[in-house]
Design goal:
By secondary structure, the protein is an alpha/beta fold. Helices cover about 45% and strands about 15% of the residues. Helix 5 links the parallel strand 3 and strand 4. Belongs to the ferrochelatase family.
């Protein structure tokens, strides 16, 4: 690829590369404040619980970046060059931008592996990327959201249809209710008019309609442990309520996430599954997007559209 190629900064939250790097990762999340021994043990135990401490998010992200590069090359050979930038692990967002600069990239597009915009999530990624790009004289435009892209909705609807069928079979033919979910954020985003919650509801409505799944509701998961209130109810509370109302089959559809990672493999596959067993409710989860061709197509479309806004 030539230096005239447009850089693509593919950003995501990041994950530790090994159990030994969990403390460094957790300290970065906590803005330089080291976790207590108890906090560190709790997080390390969770990673050990998902397949003995395997770190699938890092591998998934690598595959997503590679798959996106292939999709862009198929559409426009040699025009784009993908780089990775992580929020809380190496290579950091700033590292990804610096790598672009080292390769002589002058124009770039930034995109986050999360479909829904929030001032507390996507905006923070983009702010860091734009600040670093300015230091290096790189013209950067950032994608803000892609929560209603037709290929994204199609991929998620396919997963919901197959998930409903599997949970129905598991329950002996019970009617399945779909629980769309996403990572909770502090409640104060509502007062600020943040679009995150509404975009998630828009995605959920579109997916439910495309999947032919009229019985659904939205819930939250994976809230942070801070003194301020977070958006709720949590999925475990929602499961309690629905079981009390007689629901016997539930499908988790975490549309706020795109990869197999801790919030899915632990919070849903272990914690929520155990909770469902105690409630006597059949429970399942949709397959994550990971590097699904339709998801790669979604990202590639958004990148090409954003690149059209760059000065020539």
């Amino acid at each position: 690829m030539s230096n005239a190629a447009i850089g693509v900064l593919v950003m995501s939250y990041g994950t530790p590369e090994s159990l030994e790097s969990v403390e460094e990762y957790y300290t970065h999340i906590r803005r330089g404040s080291a976790p207590s021994a108890e906090q560190l043990k709790e997080l390390t135990d969770r990673y050990e619980a998902i397949a003995g401490g395997v770190f699938p998010l890092r591998e998934n992200t690598d595959r997503q970046v590679s798959g996106l590069q292939d999709k862009l090359d198929t559409a426009e050979p040699g025009r784009f060059r993908c780089y990775q930038g992580l929020k809380h692990a190496r290579p950091y967002i700033e590292d990804g931008v610096a790598a672009m600069a080292k390769d002589g990239v002058k124009r770039a597009v930034g995109i986050v592996l999360a479909p829904h915009y929030s001032t507390m999530s996507i905006a923070s990624y983009n702010k860091r990327a734009l600040a670093e790009a300015q230091k290096h004289g790189i013209e950067l435009v950032c994608v803000e959201s892609y929560h209603l892209h037709p290929s994204l909705i199609e991929a998620l609807a396919e997963r919901v249809r197959e998930g409903v069928e599997a949970v129905s079979a598991k329950s002996g033919g019970a009617d399945v209710k779909v629980l769309f979910s996403a990572h909770s954020l502090p409640e104060r985003i509502r007062e600020a008019g943040d679009p995150y919650e509404e975009q998630l509801l828009e995605t959920s409505r579109a997916v439910a309609e495309a999947a032919g799944a009229p019985r659904w509701q939205f819930t939250w998961q994976s809230a942070g442990r801070t003194a301020e209130p977070w958006l709720g109810p949590d999925i475990l509370e929602t499961m309690d309520q629905l079981a009390g109302e007689g629901e016997r089959a539930l499908l988790a559809a975490p549309v706020g996430f795109v990869s197999d990672h801790l919030e899915v493999l632990y919070d849903l596959d272990i914690e929520a599954m155990d909770h469902a067993d105690k409630l006597g409710v059949a429970f399942g989860r949709i397959r994550m997007l990971n590097s699904d061709p339709l998801y790669m197509e979604t990202l590639a479309d958004c990148i090409r559209e954003a690149a059209a806004k760059l000065p020539s």
